[in-house]
Amino acid sequence: MSFKVDKSSNFSKKGRTSKKIHFLVIHYTGMQSARVSMERLKNPKSKVSCHYFIKRDGTIYRMVEDNKIAWHAGKSHWREKTDLNRYSLGIEVQNKGHFISYQNFPKKQIFSLIRLIKKLMKKYKIRKENVLGHSDIAPLRKLDPGEKFPWEFLSSKGVAIWYPKFKLKKFNFSSKERRKIFFKNVFKIGYRFFNLSKHSKRDRKVITAFQRRFLPKEVNGKITDKTLKISQLLS
C-alpha cells in the first residue's frame, strides 16, 4: 500500500516501540479544505497533527511516522488508558464537519480508510474493538467523526465493532435504574468521563457520543430503549 508523504514536525521528541500502539483513532478535519487542514496539521503553532490524512478522493498521506507520538487525541480516556496520543495512531479524514457543512463520506475515501486500517491492524496486532472515534475517547469535547461516519459498514469489513440485529422490547425501568444499567454497560465497553453512581451534566454528552457511534439516526442524548439495548449487546 503506497502513501504520499507530507511531513508534520508536530510530534513528541520521545518515540515509542510498536508494542505501545494499541488503538486507531479516527477524526474528521472540520475545516474548509484539505489544503487548509494539512497546513494546520503542519503548523508548529497549532500543536496538532496526525499520522495519516485521507482526502475525499481517497488519497492517503503519511504526516507523522508511526513510531512518533502525534498530537491528535488531546485530553482523552478509554478503558484504563489516559492520554491516548501515547498509545494510538491518529487518522484524519477530510470532512468539513458539523460547524461548517457536515458531509457524507465518499466511497473512495472510506475504501482507502478500510485498506489502511487493515494494514495497521495486521502490523500492530490491533483488535477491531480498539478502532475508535475521537468522540469515543473525548465525548465531552468532540463530535467527530460523527453520525454520518459509516461505522456499520466498517464493521462489515472486519475493522470495527457493531451489534447484532435484535427485536426491541420495551424496558420497564425507572430513569434511575435505566441510567445505572446504561452507564455500567458503556463503562465495560470503554467509555469514561462520567460518574457511575451519580448523575451529572456530563451524562448527556456521553450518551450522545455513544449514539453518534452506534445509533446515528437517534442522536438525542436520552437513554431510549434502543440505546439501552445496544449498550447491553456491546458490553
List the helices and strands and how they pair.
Layout: E1 4-5, E2 23-28, H1 34-42, E3 52-54, E4 60-62, E5 77-78, E6 81-82, E7 88-93, H2 107-124, E8 131-133, H3 134-137, H4 151-156, H5 175-189, H6 202-214, H7 225-234
Parallel strand pairs: 1-4, 2-7, 2-8, 3-7
Antiparallel strand pairs: 3-4, 5-6
Helix pairs in contact: 5-7
Mind explaining what this structure looks like?
It is a single chain. With 235 residues, the protein is α/β, with parallel strands linked by helices. It is built from seven helices and eight strands. The chain has helices spanning 34-42, 107-124, 134-137, 151-156, 175-189, 202-214, 225-234, and strands spanning 4-5, 23-28, 52-54, 60-62, 77-78, 81-82, 88-93, 131-133. The strands form two sheets. The chain has a six-stranded mixed β-sheet with strand order 1-4-3-7-2-8. A hairpin with a 5-residue loop joins strand 3 and strand 4 (60-62). The longest helix has 18 residues, at 107-124. The chain starts with a strand and ends with a helix. The relative contact order is 0.14.
Gist of the model:
The chain has 235 residues and is α/β, with parallel strands linked by helices. 32% of the residues lie in helices and 11% in strands.
